[in-house]
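DM from R.C. (forwarded with permission)

"hey, sorry to bug you on a friday — could you get me a structure for this? deadline for the figure draft is monday and I only need the backbone to look sensible"
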Amino acid sequence: MRKQRPQVRSCSLCGKVGHNRSRCPQKATEKIIKKSNTARPAVMHFFVHHVNNEATPSPHILDLKKSQLDILKKIQTIAPANQDKSFFHFHHRLASVSSSAPVQSQPLFQKPIAPPSFTPKKNNLGARGYYSLSKKISTIISAIAQARNKLNNSIIKLAHKVIHFFTVKIPWKRLSFAISVLLIILISPFQASTYYQQTKLTVNNIGSQSTAGFTALKESTTALINGDIDTADQTISTALNRFENAINTLQNHNQLLQKIVSIVPILNTAVISRQKIILAGQEISLGNGFLIQGISASRAAASSTLTQNLSVISSHLKLALPNYQKALANLNEIKPSVLPPEYQNQFEDFKKIFTALNNDLNTLTDLSDSLQEIFGGQGFRRYLLVFQNPAELRPTGGFVGSLAIIDINNGQITNLEIPPGGPYDLQGQLSENLIPPSPLLLLRSRWEFQDANWFPDFPKSAEKMMRLYRKSRAVTVDGVIAINATVLNRILTVTGPLQDDKRNLTLAADNVLATIQQVVESSSERSTGKPKQIIADLAPQILNYFTNFDSNNILALLSNLQQALAQKEIQAYFTDEVTETKIKELGWGGDILTTTANQDYLMVINTNIQGQKSDARIKQKISHQAVVDSDGSVIDTVIITRTHTGTATENFYGANNVDYLRLYVPAGSELIEASGFTWPDENNFRTPSTKAQEDPDLLNTEEEIGIDRQTGTRITREFGKTAFGNWIITEPGQTTQVQFVYRLPFKLKAQSNLSNNWANFILANRQTALGYQLVTQRQSGCESSIESQIIFPDNYFPSWSQGQQIRLAANGAIIENQPLTQNQVWSVLAKD
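My reply, with the result:
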């Protein structure tokens, strides 16, 4: 008889052998759940909402999966019962956090969109099986992603989508399809590596072609500026061929590039920059083509006048400018680092040159109508030309040693008169006897033409010259053009040397000024009473060049002309109001700048009186400091240092430099102290004639405020500014220094919002800022340098600056010592 096997019963609650339901350790857990859900089945409620990045399982749910599978099966997802913001949270996973890391929750400050309710479908694997499979797949994908950093984000996102798809929504029979998709993901990084290398080679090919094209384009532009039209035309063809090759390469690989570079930032940046090179090169080539056409057309019309040539070239300039402007916009978006190292410096240099050229051509295009007016395109015009010598400084640029009267009609010079004795030929014909400004009494007792440029405001000085010329010759003029001697150097660099057969002299750019000075001051020329005759002899050669100028050189000539105007080597005043307004807008009028009520302003004016040509050996340095007090008041200190580098034995240049110095500052500034001045001997000053009259223009222009008792500094109000004037004498080999300390007429006010004229500056945390701006104006012909310090109160910290060679310091800003070649503006902002 078979022995009966004892019955073994398992627990109906947990399924284990050895105990029954009443003694099951998990019974307590079941009681708790039943007690909390007496009216309904044991169901745990939660909800899910979507965020921009990929969904991440809640760590709480993962814990539940690990410990209570039975409870997990009863979980349902529902929408929130209410919209209380404190009731729910959202989860964000950073890209740098792995898929297995816990995700920190943050309060949600925006109302979420609840997803529709759903119940996970059952499948053959069961939840535990799918969870195990998804975890393994995630681990594999994460490992691959770490090996392929550049494709990391794309792989992780796609892998999670696939995992979510087949673990939740699809049954087991479609699992094979999902595995196939995963295999493609695993293989794609190796294919992408090959695409990456191919794309890199394509990008480099485009770069080499476009860089070579740009090199040819640089040669074309340089040749065009220098007037070599044939070379410019040939190199444009070379440039266009190179750019065409780059475009063909780009188009042939366009589909591949679009697919690959969009997810590889390094390649994407390189491709974009090189596309910009191609676009910029094409635009510049087209612009150069228009200019070449214009110059060629002008050159072909041999009988055309100057105004006709200007009209033809101007019309082609207007066609070229849109191309140049588009090219400049593309150039500014190119990163030089994508170019081969040997081309990077060349590219930067070319961009600077092209930017300057574009600005010059834009200015000349705006001026084209005015040039037609100036050169007699609208009818007969007569101008007074005055030639200033900066070696003997005067307020508008230099002593007027020579003058000319020029008549122009329709671009043709119909008459030119150059007095061989210079302005002294007008002395005996001057019918007006005016008392000159008091410093000029050191020279003569009446105001004469050669001293008419007393005012630093060129329009005012030009009006005075026109008046004195009219009182001498009974002739009116339509304008005054002041030309510094240095312009002759610029002309000869374009035209080549001049030949003076009468004196057997060759005058080139490097010796013309010294040679003319030697001839003018020589005893043989002076004995004839015509010391300026050499200028009259050379003038026909210069005029012949401008009358029959080579169109190939017109860009070089216009470029030098623009530079001379920008540096005030040429200043112009015209009675035609439209033309004069345009000249002032371009900054070529030499007028005193108008400033706002809260701008600091500084202009130093030197007037050489009986100092011969000693300014040619003077080096001047302007040191400025502005100290802002806690109440916003500003104290300025200006120190002017003048060093005479000549020797007493030098002809013309070895004399003592006798300078009447004026400092122009904001109107209403209060002089606190001044020092360092030296006065000429009072016995050397002339006494005006009893018949001499005071000049009403001088009285109205120089409104005297007072005289400083300690130093004799004269304080006047002129041209909307306050001026401090005094004497400084510097002997050869010596250095002199004068100092002015004054309080500005305004206080800086803390502001919470600032004008766009200052900067696009945003103040955070309700901070306020003090804004300081310094405007400096250059005296024509004066070789000077400038430096400055701006110091703010202790509770303000500089945060922004603008201007050349300016840098912020702990309590202000420093403007580095630099040549003052043109007007400058510096701005600083400091936050509290």
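R.C.: lifesaver. The mean pLDDT is 74.
me: no worries. The domain at 600-831 is CATH 2.60.40 (Immunoglobulin-like).
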